[in-house]
Amino acid sequence: MAMVDVHRFAESITCHAWSPDHSMVAFCPNNNEVHIYKSSQDQWERLHVLEKHDQIVSGIDWSSKSNKIVTVSHDRNSYVWSLEGGEWVPTLVILRLNRAALCVQWSPKENKFAVGSGAKTVCICYYEQENNWWVSKLIRKRHESSVTNVAWHPNNILLATTSTDGKCRVFSTFIKGIDTKDSKAGSPAESKFGEQILQLDLSYSWASGVKWSPSGNTLAYVGHSSMIYFVDDVGPSPLAQSVAFRDLPLRDVLFISEKMVIGVGYDSNPMVFAADDTGIWSFIRYIGEKKAESSGASYSSQFSEAFTKFYGQSKATTANEASESSKSRGGVHDNCINSIVPHSKAGSPKVMRFSTSGLDGKIATWNLENMQEELGHQFQ
């Protein structure tokens, strides 16, 4: 089983991010503040409280190279925080939004960051040296509903988005003067700003939790219908797979290697998905599960649950029994897990450690080093 370090910081946590050396964590305790804690001798000490937003903070990302924190909020604002003289100093970002900002992520080179919003737009923000401020260019009229998540391709140009319109899209974010055309001629990365490279209509429900594989060859995202989607060869002729599972929907995903993905969500337990030698993806197990269920047992259990619920025989299942069932699968969280982030060196082809945060106020750090044999060759 994976080794887990768990600490409860608040009643509920909206999002979190780690400092470059992973000694500090920034999170939103489901309000308009960002708390920064530092780990020292197995104890957590609160160092800073960032107070600038007026409404709940919906997204945090901490750059690994420049040591800057970017935050977004339902108040439609974004701030870039810089550490100066022991204090975090905010700089306002001009987003030009009329709806809530919902998510944010630094680009791999950290010269841009992307903000998804409830205004059906994506803001690509960059620093203007001449005016000493952060400005944004908007990708408009592409989404039909709120943008729930964003993910940067390793080339620093392509950006994947998910939306409550059920679609996943890939855009070019090339900005003249900020980006350089160092890719192969005619590649999607050389497309003009805001050009849609791909639109995926695989989900018939809300889509969220999108990520690229370390190489950028595979894209994964999740739907609210307990489905996860994998797309290879992103471009004019993509190869797509859909994997259904019997448990509650996922909220977020993370590639820990080219052939393995961790998904987290409403089931409160991280789930492992992997591709076999032929490239076919499937659900493998829960992280804390001692032995994966066979497919026959899984479907049998699913049928039994549906049968008893249909005939009203589920009264015998108590809350304690449900809790024990969750614990038997290695349940660390007591409520929905809303985010998963790597807890290892940025840009690493294999993630040995990652962290999750949820509505139970806990942040859990997972170590997969002792699970490599259990997870198999897909982890390599």
Automatic annotation (TrEMBL):
Q: Which residues cross the membrane?
A: none
Q: Which residues form the WD repeats? A: 50-91, 140-172
List the InterPro entries: ARPC1, WD40/YVTN_repeat-like_dom_sf, WD40_repeat_dom_sf, WD40_rpt
GO cellular component terms, A-Z: Arp2/3 protein complex
Q: Which GO terms describe its biological process?
A: Arp2/3 complex-mediated actin nucleation
Q: Does the keyword Repeat apply?
A: yes
UniProt GO molecular function: actin binding
Q: Which UniProt keywords apply?
A: Actin-binding, Cytoplasm, Cytoskeleton, Repeat, WD repeat
The Swiss-Prot or TrEMBL record describes its family as follows: Belongs to the WD repeat ARPC1 family.
Q: How does it assemble?
A: Component of the Arp2/3 complex composed of ARP2, ARP3, ARPC1/p41-ARC, ARPC2/p34-ARC, ARPC3/p21-ARC, ARPC4/p20-ARC and ARPC5/p16-ARC.
Function summary = Functions as a component of the Arp2/3 complex which is involved in regulation of actin polymerization and together with an activating nucleation-promoting factor (NPF) mediates the formation of branched actin networks. Arp2/3 complex plays a critical role in the control of cell morphogenesis via the modulation of cell polarity development. Functions as component of the Arp2/3 complex which is involved in regulation of actin polymerization and together with an activating nucleation-promoting factor (NPF) mediates the formation of branched actin networks.
> Which protein, by its recorded name, is this?
Actin-related protein 2/3 complex subunit
Q: Which organism is it from?
A: Eruca vesicaria subsp. sativa (Garden rocket)
